[in-house]
Amino acid sequence: EFPTIEIAPVDPVPVRAAVARLAHGSYDWCVFTSTNGVAEWFHFLAEAGLDARAFVGTRIAAIGAETARALATHGLRADVVPERFVAESLLEALAGEELQGKRVLLARAADSRAVLPDGLGARGALVDDVPLYIARRPAQADSEIVRRLREGTVEIATFSSSSTVRGCIELLGGRELLRGVRIVCIGPITAETARAAGLEVALVSEIHTIEGMIDALQEQLRQSPEGAPVHAGD
Questions:
Q1: pLDDT reported for residue 231
Q2: Mapping DSSP to helix (H, G, I), strand (E, B) and coil, where does residue 208 land?
Q3: Given phi > 0 = left and psi -120 to 50 = alpha, else beta, which region is 159?
Q4: What is the pLDDT of residues 34-73, one digit of tens each?
Q5: Contact call for residues 103 and 126 (beta carbons, < 8 A)
Q6: CB–CB of 161/67 below 8 Å?
């Protein structure tokens, strides 16, 4: 494991205000984009003495099966989980919903892509884009992993988000140590970030979960054990 991001706190005041609005039934929809977002949101709910009952009357959308499972551990079932676990697919999944004038809580990391708030706003939704946490680069890289990369003993690198791609390259001081390493990405957005950073992506999982990425990698290795890129699912 090579941690490339760490979770840092944000200004709690806007989050606490959003929690109060949810408890008063102000939101028609609440959108979660990650398991970290779910964990942070329920931290603030508990701080206010609230639980899943605060969502009464609010419909819930989740990007990704893992995000939906995280909600389920708190007793919530997402109303909408898109087939592809990216922001664009959620907008497609909500195409049949009337969003004009609806108030939407977007609970996610700071500095996330603008696809969701822009897309929902274009449909007439009133979006509260509330940062719950900051995903930032750790102060220093794991020296053991850096040593192994320099020695060429790392054969595969898996990336589960665009932020892990960016964080990894920043921690390594560039992409040079990843040359010759088979790059595996959880989905197309992560792969796009990796390619933009100059990495050659060998595999993009069709199912955008950790389990899906592992299954796709195992299948690729069965087909190409020596490491020649096979762009299955890309």
A1: 41
A2: coil
A3: beta
A4: 999 999 999 999 999 999 999 999 999 999 888 999 999 9
A5: yes
A6: no
Helix residue ranges per DSSP H, 24-158: 35-47, 65-72, 87-93, 115-122, 143-151
Query: Which two tokens mark 222?
Result: 């069965």
- Tens digit of each residue's pLDDT (9 = 90 or more) over 150-193: 999 999 999 998 889 999 999 999 999 999 999 999 999 999 99
> Do the beta carbons of residue 48 and residue 15 sit within 8 Å?
no
The DSSP 8-state label assigned to residue 30 in this structure reads: E
Q: What type of residue is 63?
A: I
What does DSSP assign to residue 28? S
Question: What pLDDT was estimated at residue 224?
Answer: 78
Q: How far apart are CA 195 and CA 165, in angstroms?
A: 10
Contact between 103 and 206 under an 8 Å Cβ cutoff? The reply is no
Residue type, 48: A
DSSP H or E segment with residue 8: strand 6-8
Residues 6 or more apart in contact with residue 91 via CB below 8 angstroms: 115, 116, 119, 120
Going by the DSSP 8-state scheme, the letter that residue 156 receives in this structure is E
**What's the pLDDT at 136?**
84
